[in-house]
Design goal:
The protein is mainly beta and 376 residues long. It folds into 2 domains: 221 residues, Galactose-binding domain-like (Jelly Rolls, Sandwich); 110 residues, no CATH class. The chain contains 2 helices and 25 strands. The strands form 5 sheets. The protein has a 7-stranded antiparallel beta sheet with strand order 4-5-8-13-10-11-14. It is globular and about 70 Å long.
Length: 376
């Protein structure tokens, strides 16, 4: 585990003291699957995206239909409370050439600089995780370098059906291609669960090389989409510098949530959503004109970039409460100023307001939903 030294002036003695604080060794975020701001289940999936458990993305193209859930099935005695489950609900036993099925996380370049990629001192990294599936066989894990279009892949085997197994994979350091020191994506970490011949027809790049699509996935890769009996569970996902796997780094829930909120922040929702309720408060606001109200939302943590407003729209989905309003319902939001510290939002359609008066915005329809998105 990495250690950060901080010098501080003692208020009692006026002298400098050294404080040691522990930093995160796990390059990945939410590897214990404990945070799921978007909800705990998504079904009928034929296209991908960020859907349930935070920071992990589902990728799919012509590979059946799926349900993803935050699950409580976990390896016994390992300290985990949650996992992610992928369940096939409509099969595709014969994948087309361009088909793909993946579960992955993107990582900012500025979080990877200590790996010294592209130098003679490039660090190896070790990828470890707990996995369980009804379908045994060969699977592929991959690191893709988005800055230099390079990648490396390794295989692992699920040996026993429906049994939790811990897997450890070490990827050598790459002495070619430095990573950008910024808040954009540099690494993609892939679990491959199915792939068409476009990805499997070459020779697997088990050492770092220029990315060639045909060399990304093993020709022995199983097709998890070939039966509705198939499922796949994962938890305890960790990527760390070095050639050995250490115990999973459990973070307190609040620290894990703050790391996730850098990329996505749930704000409020109607009663159709988990944690939602009618009249759920979104933010305080003020009537800037006789038709427009502004609300400023200050983020609990600095977001990766100025986020977009993610929300549903519909007739009278939201309400601006105020003592002197003749038309206090509106359908959606627009943003006027957004930074990684706060955002200014307003109603997308007109209301009948008294300028200069304060109020607050709420969700008043079961399907209303507001969040802020700065995902990679």
């Amino acid at each position: 585990m990495s250690e950060l030294k901080v010098d501080k002036v003692s208020p009692r003695t006026g002298t400098y003291v050294s404080l040691n604080t522990v930093g995160s060794k796990n390059i990945l975020i939410n590897g214990d699957m404990s945070i799921a701001q978007r909800g705990t289940s998504a079904s009928g999936l034929t296209s991908g995206g960020y859907l349930t458990v935070d920071r992990f993305n589902f990728g799919i193209a012509s590979a059946g239909t799926w349900t993803i859930t935050q699950d409580t099935d976990v390896p016994s005695g390992q300290g985990f409370a949650k996992s992610t489950k992928l369940d096939c609900t409509t099969a595709n036993a014969s994948l087309g050439a361009s088909a793909e099925l993946t579960f992955y996380q993107k990582i900012e370049g500025q979080n990877l600089q200590y790996l010294k990629k592209g130098t003679a001192n490039a660090e190896s990294v070790t990828f470890s995780f707990w996995v369980k599936s009804s379908k045994t066989g060969t699977y592929t894990a991959e690191i893709y370098d988005a800055d230099n279009d390079r990648q490396i892949s390794k295989t692992y085997t699920i040996d026993s059906a429906s049994t939790w197994e811990k897997k450890t994979i070490t990827f050598a350091g790459d002495t070619t291609g430095t990573l950008d020191n910024d808040n954009a994506v540099s690494f993609w970490i892939f679990f491959w669960l199915g792939a068409g011949s476009n990805y499997t027809s070459g020779t697997l790049n088990t050492s770092w090389n220029s990315a060639t699509t045909a060399n990304r996935v093993s020709s022995s890769q199983v097709n998890l989409a070939d039966s509705t009996s198939n499922d796949w569970f994962v938890t305890g996902v960790q990527l760390e510098a070095g050639t050995t796997s250490s115990d999973f780094e459990f973070l307190p829930y609040d620290m894990n949530l703050l790391r996730c909120q850098r990329y996505y922040q749930y704000v409020a929702a109607g009663s159709s959503y988990p944690r939602g309720s009618l009249d759920a408060v979104i933010t305080n606001a003020v009537s800037y004109t006789t038709t427009l109200a502004y609300g400023v939302f200050n983020f609990p943590t600095t977001m990766r970039s100025g986020p977009s407003v993610e929300h549903t729209t519909g007739s009278n989905y939201y309400r601006y409460y105020n003592a002197a309003i003749s038309n206090d319902y509106f359908d959606g939001f627009v943003s006027y100023e957004n930074t990684n510290e706060n955002i200014l939002i307003g109603n997308s359609d007109t209301m009948g307001l008294t300028a200069g008066q304060a109020g607050w915005m709420t969700c008043v329809n079961a399907n209303a939903y507001v969040a802020f998105d700065a995902e990679l």
